Amino acid sequence: MLHVQNLSGGYDKKHPAVHDVSFQVEKGSFFALLGPNGSGKTTIIRLLMGVIPISSGGALLDGKPIDRYSSVELAQKVSVLSQENQMGLDFTVEEIVALGRYPYQAKRLFHEESETDREAVKEAMKLTHLDSYKSKPFISLSGGEKQRVLLAKALAQEPELIILDEPTNHLDIKHTLEILDLLKKLQKEKNLTVLAILHDLNIASIYADALGMLKQGKLIQISEGFLKNDEELLRKVYETDLHIAAHPEMAKMQVSFMPRQQITSKRVSTSPFSVNEEKDRLILQFDSQLRTLALGKDGDGLAWSAGMMCTNIISNAEVPEHYIRWEYPESSIECIQEDLLGSSCILMKHWDGAEVHLALFTEFPLSDIDLMNLSISITESRMKLYPVSMTGRIVVGTDRSKRKNKTDEMKKVFLEELKIWVLAKVQNLR
Amino acid sequence: MGSLFTRIYINNRNKFFYFFGILFVIFSIIIALFLGTVAITVPDILRIVTEHLTGIPLYKGPKSTEMIIWEIRFSRVVLAFFVGAALSLAGAAFQGLLRNPLADPYTIGVSSGASLGAVLVIFFQLNIIWLNGFTLPVFAIAGGGLTLLLVFGITRLASSTLANETIILAGVILSSFTGALVSLLMALTPREDVRQILYWLMGSVSMRGWEHVKLIIPFFVIGAVILLLHAKELNGLALGDQSAQFTGINVKKKKRLILIAASILTGGAVAVSGAVGFVGLVIPHLVRLISGANHKHVLPLTLFIGGGYLVLADLAARTIISPRELPIGVVTALIGAPIFTMLLIKERMRRGGI
């Protein structure tokens, strides 16, 4: 549908804001342009739509150079929902949506409205749920409603390609998803092609079929979606620490951002763990929340935990929020704390004859995968020391708040040490 | 029941407005014909007017009465209508095009240019014989046209896209410059002749006759037809130049065409009547308060309301301190300002202060 080839241009001819950009938007697909502010996203749209002159390269729309189209011809194929919208005059919602019919009326002598025009306006307003807004003044609407009206105007143009410049700017998540869901629906049902500038990487990842990443006017990557490997690229582009992980419910990747200002614990202590024994309970408190993996009966899986409380079932004690609950008599719990390669580690065991429950926490920063592997190696250790049929809960935790520069090499060595230590200690505690 | 009525009202609202607008024009023209320093009976007036419009000889009274009604009063009323309609229409177009509620037919300097042309004629006592007594209006139109060209030239050099701000700035610069030239000429004019220039500048439709009506009609028809055909473009431009471009409007070309048409209207009006103020600024706002912003309705309605309004204003100008006359520009503002203020407050209150 749209083939952009080596497109360059911008306001400043000596330093074009967009440099040698090439990409293709297939018919019926959703292409998202991403990139930080000032990376040239909006400039690409302005170049395509002929608002600013192209200095070199160009774009083909259905095989014909886009600058050969007359304004009316172009508007019949492509509609744009831009960020700049001034509205000094007091138009009603319907009048604004009807402006989208201009390209079809321009050739008629008196620009009169036809039945098709009225139908298209009605249809666009129905799609955007604006039926009841018909004669309301545009200026009295909220930001989300205004955006919907402008989208309706763009749809009334009956475009084959719709270009959106941050269509969900200033919108809350409900309205954002509403607009994008509608576009997705039109993409499916009417084979509408969408080219959108999106700011939210996660929204783009969910909705777009292809992602184009811009940095300083250059298109540095086109992909079908984010991969774990894109972390480095995204960090460079956005100059922000971030992590890519799978969406919990969809086969799409999501990006999580890290604050540059480390959020550290207010308390200063030498040990990340403190053990308090009270009359009927044993409380293990973490200095800052630990990333934990709890497996076995009542296990919560991956979570963030502030501590662990071991107490009798009969004690009926209140477990504080973000605490892992271990309902075992505190008297039977064995606990050992030791420094391993400079990182504090704590191992807890409870054996009631039928089951062996083990908990291991370490100060060393580990990834979720490491935690899972660690839990496997603990299970294996237990199988070596106890009958194979012996079950029980496994809890592992790691402190990610102190992100000391640990290399992969150091981690490998530490994990090996840890496994040996665990095997030895589980045996000892027996 | 109430909602049914509201629906019928909304569906037919614009028809109602057009009906009212045309009625207003007819009403103002009839009143303006009947009232005057010389009392003439109503049947006589009707006979004279029908005789001239249809060619059927009906009137058998004295020739002088016929002269007063047809040559002096009726021509004056018709001229006032065209001037008012032209200025209001041009004002609506300028406000819509430049997206500026303060814009009026004089914003982009065309009228100042026309005034300079006219003042030059008065100052040098020019009388070009083959122009047949129309030396002044022709010079005025030439001055206006020249100013428009200069505005385009300056805008073109300053920005490649005909940006509104640049157009307004170029207009303001040229207005000031030509205004200064007019002042200079006035300073150099002997005292007894200054009054003539001053009166021309304030605007008037008195002592003009059918020749001037014939002069303004071609300008009016061309300008009005072009503007009325560009209602959709003016609507589109209200969302901003870029947005208009995206909906398929050839912004540069259409903008230029609308500016030229509005300037033709302004130039024509100023050439025959001088710079009559207030009408072009306020009538479009007044119409928008009632009909909404859609130019499809705003443009024809301003034409009617503006024309009728100036007919009434002229009537007031010649009757209030009769037999002397007030400058029409003074009357338009003195009567119009309070009416407009009242409507504005009422409308804003109705809408809850948006």
What would you note in describing this structure?
The complex is a heterodimer of chains A (430) and B (354). Chain A has helices at 41-48, 71-77, 93-99, 102-105, 115-127, 143-156, 173-190, 201-207, 231-238, 368-385, 408-429; strands at residues 2-9, 18-25, 30-34, 54-61, 64-65, 78-81, 161-165, 193-197, 210-215, 218-223, 242-246, 253-257, 273-277, 281-295, 301-311, 323-326, 333-340, 343-351, 356-362, 394-398. Chain A has two domains: 2-257, Rossmann fold, CATH 3.40.50; 273-429, 4-Layer Sandwich (L-amino peptidase D-ALA esterase/amidase). In chain A, strands 13, 14, 15, 16, 17, 18, 19 and 20 form an eight-stranded mixed β-sheet that branches. A six-stranded mixed β-sheet of chain A has the order 6-7-8-3-9-10, with helices on both faces. In chain A, α5 packs antiparallel against α6 (143-156) and α10 packs parallel to α11. By secondary structure, chain A is an alpha/beta fold. Chain B is 77% helix and 0% strand. Chain B starts with a helix and ends with a helix. The chains are: A alpha/beta (430), B mainly alpha (354). Chain B: This is Iron complex transport system permease protein. Chain B: It is found in: Cell membrane. Chain B: It is a multi-pass membrane protein. Chain B: Keywords: Cell membrane, Membrane, Transmembrane, Transmembrane helix, Transport.
Descriptive key words:
heterodimer; A: 430 residues; alpha/beta; Rossmann fold; L-amino peptidase D-ALA esterase/amidase; 2 domains; eight-stranded mixed sheet; six-stranded mixed sheet; 11 helices; 29% helix; B: 354 residues; mainly alpha; ABC transporter involved in vitamin B12 uptake, BtuC; 77% helix; globular
Compact summary:
The complex is a heterodimer of chains A (430) and B (354). Helix content of chain A is 29%, strand content 30%.
